[in-house]
Amino acid sequence: MNKVKVIGAGLAGSEAAWQLAIRGVEVELYEMKPRESSPAHHRPYFAELVCSNSLRGASMANAPGLLKEEMRRCGSLIMESALKNRTPAGGALAVDRDGFSEYITDKIKSHPLIEIIEGRVDEVPEGEAVIASGPLTDGKLYENIQALFGGDTTLHFYDAAAPIVSFASIDMDKAFFASRYDKGDADYINCPMDREQYTAFVRELAHAEEAPVRGFEDKAVFEGCMPVEVMARRGEDTLRFGPMKPRGITDPKTGKEPYAVVQLRADDREGSMYNIVGFQTHLKFPEQKRVFSMIPGLENMEILRYGVMHRNSFISSPGRLDRFYRVIGREELMFAGQITGVEGYVESAASGMCCGINMARRLMGKPLIDFSTKTALGALGAHISAYEGKNFQPMNINFGLIDSLDERVKGKQARYEKVSQRALETLENMLPEILEDVK
User: Is-contact 284 213, C-beta < 8 A?
Assistant: First the structure.
């Protein structure tokens, strides 16, 4: 049986390599770290989380929750690590950033069928391969991927990460613990603002100095990860109805809902580090310190990691990749992760899982697993391969991508739970075939 080359040991590449190996397929996993690192990466581990430490909602009434459960049932390494390294986050699945990546790294490195090859890859591989080089793909590999598809077929948007601060530096006489939007346990630190504080903060934020990014324009920012300073410039109330929404939160000092609130979520299991929720930014580092210190409770904060911004590139996949993530016309070559136009940690890992499962089946001469579009896994593959709009853009999993119900169900939550129930029933019927080759 041929060895499979997997390019990149991020979430998608690690998952693809694992799914191949546990089915008895030898893997050459290429990863440029620790020899080289991108501007967004800070740690030596595989599957590094470069932005938030949240894998989003866990409920079956939301699509990310459904996707995670489908992956768990299919034997996902990423989900195994997430559940073992979970941190308190109310209704969301958040993880200890280092513990999560270190667990995956140890599992990958200890598997006898996975050979780790350090260094940058410049060429599109021949033979069976999964390219999971990520949205920061650049240099010769980027150019050769463009050439593979006959020209400039990749697009880009800009992505940003939020600062992480030391818990010990937060003034808990001003801040308090509560849940997010009155859901789940009181796992979030809340920094309340009155109207005067909020107005002054937004004014300073909107006029703060950004670090230069070549070619950056507001319209190029992906709406799901928009820098907080861009939101501030869009109108005074934009933040108050976005990441600073105070809905369902009561300030214990006043007994009332604050005018606005900044929330922080634990970034490690010990609760020693907290990231500022929704505060992705590309302000200059001194400006981050100056402006964010206006937040009540963060006046003397110690910033452990400043917010950063970087370009994300992806293939215009419809017509170039099929629903199995294969290159049309070169079916031995697959792409996985955000470079395909799926957006988000879980979605990236899900695409890698599908690639690993089906590449193994290809080598065994078995029919590929055709995930139903009644499932979240199948809906993602359909989106990147069959999108019919004029402007293909990265997208998170959502119920709009999954097949509608044949029956009418009253109430959005009840309807979504019914979609999830149907998806899991559909997947259960497929699991014997999906898992039959796992050793």
Answer: no
Q: Is the pTM of this model over 0.90?
A: no
Tokens of 138: 């650049």
Mean pLDDT of the chain: 89
Copy the structure tokens of residue 105. Answer: 């790294």
What gap in Å lies between CA 163 and CA 225, rounded to an integer?
13
Residues 6+ apart with CB under 8 A from 265: 53, 54, 89, 92, 94, 180, 187, 188, 189, 274, 275, 277
Nearby residues of 383 by Cβ (< 8 Å), 6 or more positions away:
341, 342, 395, 401
Angle between helix axes 195-206 and 285-292 (nearest 10 degrees) is: 170
| Distance, first Cα to last Cα, the chain | 16
| Assigned CATH class of 4-157+312-435 | alpha beta
Looking at domain 164-307, its CATH architecture is Beta Barrel (2.40)
Find out whether 323 and 399 touch, Cβ atoms under 8 Å. Answer: no
Tokens, residue 66: 């459904």
**Is a pLDDT exceeding 90 seen at residue 400?**
no
Chain position carrying tokens 């690192």: 37
Helix (H, G, I), strand (E, B) or coil at 262: strand
